[in-house]
Amino acid sequence: MTTEFSWFNRVAPRGSILRFGLAGCFNSACFFTAWTVSVAVFPSVDVRMLWGLFWGLTGVLAHFIHRWFTFDGHKPLRWTLSTAIPTYIVSMVGSSLTIGWLKTNSNLHLNVLGLVNLAFWGLVVWATLRWLVFQFSDATGHASRESPTE
């Protein structure tokens, strides 16, 4: 990147949880806004169903943002997308079940529970994207070239 962004790359290097969190704020804002509005508009629909729907939709958006901003594009799109989809499916199912369990077992406001759930599953997704999908390496500063490329 150009020198005016070198400070940013030092503070939030590619692959870092901080850089993931910054990109995740955008992805999460899109998700959380859609989910919160849908819960208000469709109160009779199970929160888990709405959570899963919007988690899946924004997961595709998140993949491309993380490929461009958080990690890198050294791995072919075919590889990253085909490994990211199962990652988002597992996290969608897990986070949907978790939000349902939290709603049933906690007296906290649903939006607070949603933010806690989002943060926990965000950490799971970061780890999975970093090591499995993009196979990011701190040593090289980009994805490992030793893994499958096509």
Strand content: under 5%
What is the typical, i.e. mean, pLDDT? 87
Number of strands: 2
Class by alpha and beta content: mainly alpha
Sequence of secondary-structure elements: HHHHHEE
Our Rg estimate from Cα atoms comes to 17 Å
Main sheet summary: 2 strands, antiparallel
Uncertain spans: 143-150
Helix content: over 70%
| Shape type | globular
Distance between the termini: 27 Å
List the strand order in the largest sheet: 1-2
The DSSP helix count reads: 5
Question: Any idea how many domains?
Answer: 1
Layout of helices and strands:
Layout: H1 6-11, H2 17-41, H3 47-70, H4 77-105, H5 110-133, E1 136-137, E2 142-143
Antiparallel strand pairs: 1-2
Helix pairs in contact: 2-3, 2-5, 3-4, 4-5
Question: Would you mind describing this structure in some detail?
Answer:
This protein is mainly alpha-helical and 150 residues long. A two-stranded antiparallel ribbon has the order 1-2. It has one domain (3-143). The chain has helices spanning 6-11, 17-41, 47-70, 77-105, 110-133, and strands at 136-137, 142-143. The model is unreliable at 143-150 (pLDDT under 50).
Task: Please tag this protein with its features.
mainly alpha; 72% helix; 150 residues; two-stranded antiparallel ribbon
In short, what is this structure?
The protein has 150 residues and is an all-alpha fold.
